[in-house]
Amino acid sequence: MTDHNGTTVTHRRYIPYGHAHYGGNLVDGAYGLGLFGDVATELCILTDGDEGLFASYADVQFKAPVKAGDVVEATATVVRTGRRSRTVEFTLMVVCRADPERGDSAAVVLDVPIIATTATGTVVVP
């Protein structure tokens, strides 16, 4: 068994305004969980040559809002390697945010990214 602890995958994505689900251009929390599934899939391919299956979340924390117009980074890091399972820590960070007070298309790169969502999950590979 190969120890994959510390292996990390990050995806960056712009959130279009069509994904706003609530007032104030808020995006639902499931959007971030979908991104966690994407980075977990790439992580399994990288470590095990298989897409794997997402088995469970042990903890999900919604810490700050995610909005349409944001650029987010979803990161997955293996923290425990079992025979067929991998425990993975996930983080969703907002790295850019729309700035509508300056104009309809204005945005800023955040000096300090906002941690929006964290989670711990388990993936299983053959």
UniProtKB/TrEMBL annotation:
It comes from Glycomyces luteolus. This is 3-aminobutyryl-CoA ammonia-lyase. One of its GO terms (molecular function) is hydrolase activity. Residues 4-126 form the HotDog ACOT-type domain. Keywords: Hydrolase. Gene3D superfamilies: Hotdog Thioesterase (3.10.129.10). The lineage of its organism: Bacteria, Bacillati, Actinomycetota, Actinomycetes, Glycomycetales. It comes from the Bacteria. InterPro entries: HOTDOG_ACOT, HotDog_dom_sf, Thioestr_dom.
